[in-house]
Amino acid sequence: MIRHLLPRRSALALLAPLAAGLALAGVPAPAAAATAVPTTATSASVGAIDPAAINTRLWMSQIKSVIGDRPLNKIVMPGSHDAGSWSITPSSGVCDAGSEAAMAKRFPGVAANLSVTQYSPIIEQLNSGSRYLDLRLCKQNGQWYTYHGGPRGNLFLDDTVTGRKGEINEIAEWLRDHPEEIVTIELRTAAPPDSDPSPDRDTAVEDYREAVERLGQAIGTSRMADRNKLSPKSTYNQFMAAGANVVLIDTRSLTNNTWAWPSDRVETRDSYLEN
Fold first, then answer.
1. What is the DSSP letter of 40?
2. Phi, psi at 112, each rounded to 5°
3. Sequence-distant (≥ 6) Cβ neighbours of residue 150 within 8 angstroms
4. Distance between CA atoms of residues 48 and 33, nearest Å
5. Which residues in the chain land under pLDDT 50?
6. To 10 degrees, the CA torsion angle through 192, 112, 91, 153?
7. Minimal CA–CA distance to 42: which of 19, 74, 62, 65?
8. Which ranges in the chain belong to alpha helices (H)?
């Protein structure tokens, strides 16, 4: 069900505040995190930060004296609900595997307006301060696009046939250029079932794993947090010491990559405000 009746606004206005979005779900912290002693910023140190001087592209690095010894799940950060929906238009196409595909094909204009929750490209959402991306990808005709419900947005991963570049390239460049900004990506996918599935092959699982692998390749797994070394209780400084500024949440827990955190390692309120 499409759950949005939102007019188009600026990206910053629609950045949903996500507090403790990576709380541990009863999983012991790794040794590196267990030795940390979180500190609480004093009112004096918080007061020393001039809000007017904050650069939203660099806000985590700017206040690292305050958040440095704070666990990641104790840092309140803005996030983008359906981050990729910004590029949806009545004519941008439909994700056939989407839950609202039939409605989107029948009423493309209505469906598009209901599905758009961001108005600026994802890189601009990051520039505006978002550090949590609710990312939904649809596999259509062999290629991966952003989508929401039924309406489809822009190409996200590179077109393997034509070589056309997807939106992920700008995001990956931003992550490389901002190594002190920690960004969490919560990945969900939709893909069509195999028209003639063999009994030992689950195409939905294979497609999901493909999306995870290609996302890791594009971003660079060396900068993605290793779930065996870091946890939501690890501090900002510990992420920086590990050279990790990307947390990828494997919402279906279908991969064995240590740089993809399974859903049973984290507890999330999702990116719906009512949660």
1. P
2. -65, -45
3. 2, 94, 95, 98, 99, 100, 101, 102, 103, 104, 105, 111, 115
4. 28
5. 1-45
6. -50
7. 65
8. 31-34, 43-47, 59-62, 64-67, 101-106, 108-115, 122-127, 168-177, 203-219, 236-241
Which single residue is written with the structure tokens 């991966």?
144
CB atoms within 10 A of CB 172: 17
Strand-pairing partners, residue 187, are 135, 250
For residue 106, count CB atoms less than 10 angstroms from its CB and return exposed for 0-12, middle for 13-18, buried for 19 or more: exposed
pLDDT per residue over 123-150, tens digit each? 999 999 999 999 999 999 999 999 999 9
| Structure tokens, 113 | 């307006």
pLDDT confidence of residue 191: 87
162: its two tokens: 């034509």
Compute the distance between CA of residue 117 and CA of residue 120 in angstroms, rounded to an integer.
10
Name the residue type at position 154: N
Whole-number Cα distances in Å, 87 to 8, 90, 110, 252: 12, 10, 15, 25
**Paired residues of 190 in beta bridges:** 138
- State the CB neighbour count (10 A cutoff) for residue 5: 7
Domains, the chain, with CATH or none: 12-267 (3.20.20)
Would the CA dihedral through 21, 152, 257, 177 be positive or negative?
A: negative
DSSP characters for 184-242? EEEEEEE-PPPSS--TT--HHHHHHHHHHHHHHHHH-GGGBPPTTT--TTSBHHHHHHT
The reported pLDDT for the residue numbered 265 is 73
Q: Which segments of 48-101 are extended strands (E)?
A: 77-80
User: Has this prediction a pTM greater than 0.85?
Assistant: no
Distance CA 124, CA 120 (A): 6
